[in-house]
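pasting for ref
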Amino acid sequence: MELFSACFPRRRPFFSKFSRSKSAPTSTTTAPAVSSTEKANGGSTVFNAQTINHSYWDIYLAHRPTYSPSFYEIIYNYHRDIGNNSWHLAKDIGTGPGNVAAILSPKFDKIHASDPGATHVEVAKERLARDGIQNVNVYQSTAEKLLSAGVTKPNTVDLLAVAEAMPLMDARTSLDSFAQITAKGGTLAIWFYGRPIFVDPLTGGVETTRAARCQRIFDEICIRAYSRIRPMKGTHWEVASSTLFSWLDNVELPEDTWGKVRRYKWNADRPLAFYDEAACDHSVVTKHVQRRDGDEQRIDVVDRSFWGKEWGINEVKEFIGVLLPQFTENLSEEIAKDGFYDELERAMGGQGASMKISWPVVLILATKK
């Protein structure tokens, strides 16, 4: 599943048009306080679709980044050269619509895919069946209690993938759960992408007036979007924010269980979160856990074409419209009414203009000892 802002900013205006004194409209979809049950099911109902709507997921996948073949090759090469080089069983944690499971399916004999949301499980099953993919077993389970589901057996998983989900989990408990089902020499792959980066199509840079202006307006749109589910408070959200602002550096891989750690970061000079630290309603603790054994490598890359897309204003609208399953069509109407989209379209260059889009991404690889 996708994780987005769960704490929200005190608005900091950058255009007089957007800083006028007026209250944001009251949302009828404001989420309730996070209960212990919701924590066990991915943090909050706002992250879980309540009905099966394949049109939503079609738009969602069309405008989210596409995990490139070269990205998967980094994972596969690590698994072949450093892991156990076994390709029998892969596990997809937080499968959502099943897109990662679908990509893994030709590489492995079997795939087990799980999600805490019952609707997501049904969506993934239907989409995988529609695409004729028959070697994926989709079931409902939280990441923290994988063995309890009774599907994936201990010490059997060769590759365990956690895509766009780790900040929603209790990291320590989840890593223990992952270790229980992963085979010796099996590979753990955790990745997360963040806020889209607007790139000037003429220069390929992000510092031009055009790119910077587009980025500021887009950021303000995100702020407006997430204000619909405020407030979200509590320890769970504090941990999620700290994980995002630390670029997952606070995810400690126990040295007695996981080794040969690789931490890749693309475009780490840009925010991974969809909001600023100063905007949070709680403290954010960013830290990097140093391994005593030194068995870790870091690879940092600045690549403004990474997972590149091209967006016009319509693509922006559709991306915002499917940020979270609990958002409604009224969201785009509210943003349009306040002139955000018109202002962004002008910043892009006018009607029909587009901008290049890239992404900040972190990937953690490790081997089960």
